[in-house]
């Protein structure tokens, strides 16, 4: 009986046995390994993105070509270049509707770019939207006939270049000059004269809002050929101006009650 081994005593409540004490370091080690792998993966993604951005920056054209491209388009459409500066009554509704963070963002909306990349990776076909004014200008000037993911990636790089090379007012002026406004009108000055019979500097709030709205889909929202669609678009633009603070609700309602003043034929004022 002297050689019998004493039975193990049960652990007191709250006291861990030797096996549990030996297993304790395993969980922190596993967590550290997971965090290390995650950090390496994230660093790899960042490096790849930086390298891809660098390559894209090199292979896309220079922003200095933008004015020459705008001049060539103006010449093709028979309008003067440079045209007059985009007035406030056009710039405000355009920014409110197309890119309300225009004055603060670096040429691209990073969240919208992320949505485009996610759609490409997942294969979804939904409309990601979110193209900034600089991206739209890049499309008009550099990639007018290109479509799909590759074109959007180029436009992102070009938008950043445009933002670095030009002031926000210069970007608005170029955009206003090369955009198509429906009914055969290219450039803001020609559109203002063609629709309203006066230069762009004399645009009223409601007239500027109509022109800022029509550039999104000029074949659909032409106020002469499609007045119902144009009116619906105008109301949306005015609503956006109220939403971002460019107009009060009362000012927006008054603008919508103001006659648009469409005209036909040549005007002696232009």
Short description:
With 270 residues, the chain is mostly helical. It has twelve helices and no strands. The chain has a single domain, classed as Biosynthetic peptidoglycan transglycosylase-like (Penicillin binding protein transpeptidase fold, Orthogonal Bundle), CATH 1.10.3810.10.
Description:
With 270 residues, the chain is mostly helical. The chain has a single domain, classed as Biosynthetic peptidoglycan transglycosylase-like (Penicillin binding protein transpeptidase fold). Helices cover 59% and strands 0% of the residues. The protein contains 12 helices and no strands. Helix 4 (88-98) packs across helix 11, helix 6 (133-141) crosses helix 7 (149-165) and helix 10 crosses helix 11 (227-244).
CATH third-tier fold name: Penicillin binding protein transpeptidase fold
Given the structure, what is the number of helices? 12
Number of domains: 1
Q: At CATH's second level, what is the architecture? A: Orthogonal Bundle
Instruction: Give the overall form.
Output: globular
Helix fraction bin: 55-70%
Percent in strands:
under 5%
Q: State the CATH superfamily name.
A: Biosynthetic peptidoglycan transglycosylase-like
Given the helix and strand composition, which structural class is it?
mainly alpha
Mean pLDDT: 84
Uncertain runs with pLDDT below 50, 5 residues or more? none
H/E series: HHHHHHHHHHHH
> Total number of β-strand segments?
0
Task: Tag the structure with descriptive keywords.
single chain, 270 residues, mainly alpha
């Amino acid at each position: 009986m002297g050689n019998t081994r004493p039975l193990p005593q049960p652990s007191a409540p709250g006291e861990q046995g030797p096996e549990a004490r030996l297993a304790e370091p395993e969980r922190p080690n596993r967590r550290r390994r997971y965090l290390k792998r995650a950090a390496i993966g994230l660093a790899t993604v960042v490096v790849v993105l930086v390298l891809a951005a660098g390559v894209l920056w090199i292979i896309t054209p220079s922003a200095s070509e933008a004015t020459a491209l705008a001049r060539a388009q103006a010449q093709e459409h028979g309008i003067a270049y440079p045209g007059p500066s985009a007035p406030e009554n056009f710039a405000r509704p355009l920014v409110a509707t197309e890119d309300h963070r225009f004055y603060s963002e670096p040429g691209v909306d990073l969240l919208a770019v992320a949505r485009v990349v996610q759609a490409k990776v997942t294969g979804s076909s939904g409309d990601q939207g979110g193209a900034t004014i600089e991206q739209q200008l890049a499309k008009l000037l550099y990639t007018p006939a290109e479509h799909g993911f590759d074109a959007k990636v180029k436009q992102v790089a070009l938008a950043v270049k445009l933002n670095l090379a030009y002031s926000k007012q210069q970007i608005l002026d170029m955009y206003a000059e090369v955009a198509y406004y429906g009914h055969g009108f290219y450039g803001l000055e020609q559109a203002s004269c063609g629709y309203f019979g006066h230069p762009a500097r004399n645009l009223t709030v409601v007239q500027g809002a109509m022109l800022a709205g029509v550039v999104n889909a000029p074949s659909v929202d032409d106020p002469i050929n499609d007045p119902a669609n144009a009116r619906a678009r105008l109301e949306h633009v005015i609503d956006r101006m109220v939403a971002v603070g460019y107009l009060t609700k009362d000012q927006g309602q008054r603008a919508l009650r103001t006659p648009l003043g469409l005209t036909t034929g040549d005007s002696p004022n232009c």
